[in-house]
Amino acid sequence: MSRITGVIVALATTAAVLSGSTSGAAPASTPAGDVPGVADLPREIERGVELVLADGDLLRVWASESYRTVRARRRDAATGAWAGPVVVLGEKRLYCGDVEARTANGAVALVAECDRGGYSDDQAPVASRALWSADTVSWVSYELEGEAYEEPGISPDGRRAVYPESAGYVTFGPEGFVRHRLETPGQEYTTTVTITDDALVSYLYGANVSRRRCALVALSRTGDTTPVRQDVDVDDACQDRSFANVDADTVVFGDFSDPASVAVISRPDAGSPWAVTRVAPASAPGLVRHEGRLYTEFLTAPDAPLVALGSRRGRKVRAQVYDPVAQAWGPATVAYESGVRCRWSDADPEDAPAVLVAVLSCHDENVALTTRDGLSWQALRMGPRPLGQSRDGRYVAVPGPTSTHVISPERGVVTLPGGVRGRCDVVVPDGPEAAVRLVATTGSRRWPVLLEHLSSTGTERLGRVGKPTPGRCSDADQSYGAPGSFDMISTRIDRGQVVRIVRRDGEWKARARTW
Questions:
Q1: Is 414 helix (H, G, I), strand (E, B) or coil?
Q2: Where are the domains of the chain?
Q3: SS3 sequence, 38-54?
């Protein structure tokens, strides 16, 4: 079983494509990539989650760096002041590494993922604890059996909770904690469990229901009565996907890093059957699927539509925009047309940028494609170099041969005088209307050493990087998971450097570390 975070990432992984005209359209008012109800899920923090309570206060619950305690801290919505951290869980020889939680009506249900004697991120915990609190001050705890790390469920009134474990689930209510065994035939991968005010539990999971058919199975019952079974047809039910309950009557299912794959399964009330109320966009009608070098990819960003890009032969790239109201794809339009066959580039953005941008590789030429509405596209040629991103992912810089482009949610594309020509020259954005570039100079053997600031008023010299690495620079890529850092390769075997461009105390600096 795979762990889930209980938070939807609002951006699909992308690699992408390009075209021709500048878009002046305003961004969509409602992000098509957003999944209904997902905003109510906890926000993931390091080793824990952040919850919005009924009165607007924030509650952070997390496992300590030592793994020895689980702590909570509350912020008052009226004053903005944080109370001091308190220990929620701490037992001898118990080590906890993560937390999952749900809240309703001011109460909190929590699963602390724990092991005895030590904790490992790559192993399922087998000594987890179920916790519940009516006021985030006093907590009650119960040890779960076997592997238990899925998120708990909580009733709308907050008085009841349910906690999945390896052979069933544990409920909490006025009667205290009660263990319930449950047979789940054909179960594959993860599960989620919900509970109503009347203690009706629904246990949902993907299952092989026959040799040729997979379905989402919902087993519902009160107490230990024989469960009522319902099979719900949903794509990829038997794949390694994630579940998360939003509330007692709403569940999301899919790959949470890709909103195109996420479906919503819900019911209007506890007396109604579960049904797919939001189809996963990747399975929605009207989508034209492409295979091969330019297989269909999806991209989205906050306040932007969900867009599908692909090409059957790698020359004419087509785009489609998803309509979340109709739950269908719009007609395919040409986003970019190339004279040569193209493929997806590995120079695409890291993490989740706040703008729609993707990169296509056509021979030795990278082209960045950007749009604000999914209909009008602008192609920005950038040679063999990588994109540059701000640390918060809000801005993207595209290094062109004669000019530098900055893409932002507020301004779209802003073009600045001054580009880059060296194979290892790089740029990073400085807000929506400026950029910083690091370029090679005569005698630097293609290693970028000169740091400059670019704006509409011209170029300003900022400083230099130290002595270049031995050999000549042959290639540069953005460092994985580290916007503003670049990996650079030398022509000398097993030599290179990592360059980091950062702004500190209002000044831009560049530092190189040789390896």
A1: strand
A2: 36-162, 385-515
A3: HHHCCEEECCEEEEECC
pLDDT reading at 14 higher than 50? no
Whose tokens are 């300003």? That residue is 460
Residue 105 tokens, joined: 């009506």
Locate tokens 């001054």: which residue? 418
Distances (CA, A) of 510 to 134, 463, 482: 51, 8, 14
Task: Encode burial over 79-103: b for 16+ CB neighbours within 10 A, e otherwise.
Answer: eeeeeeeeebbebeebbbbbbbbbb
Portion of the chain with pLDDT greater than 90, in percent? 75
Joined tokens for residue 17: 């494509």
What distance in Å separates the CA atoms of residue 320 and residue 207, rounded to the nearest whole number?
32
Half-sphere exposure of 415 (CA within 13 A, CB side): 10
pTM value surpassing 0.90: no
| Cα–Cα nearest to 397, from 431, 351, 440 | 431
Distance of alpha carbon 273 from alpha carbon 217, whole angstroms: 12
Predicted pLDDT at 238: 81
Q: Assign residue 481 a region: left if phi > 0, alpha if psi is -120 to 50, beta otherwise? A: left
Sequence-separated (6 or more) residues with CB below 8 Å from residue 142: 129, 130, 131, 163, 170, 172, 177
Determine contact, residues 73/83, Cβ cutoff 8 Å: yes
Which residues are CB-contacts of 170 (< 8 A; sequence separation ≥ 6)? 130, 142, 144, 162, 163, 177, 178, 179, 180
Contact status, residue 143 vs residue 126, Cβ threshold 8 Å = no
User: What pLDDT does residue 37 have?
Assistant: 54
Q: What residues form DSSP beta bridges with 142?
A: 130
Is a pLDDT exceeding 80 seen at residue 29? no
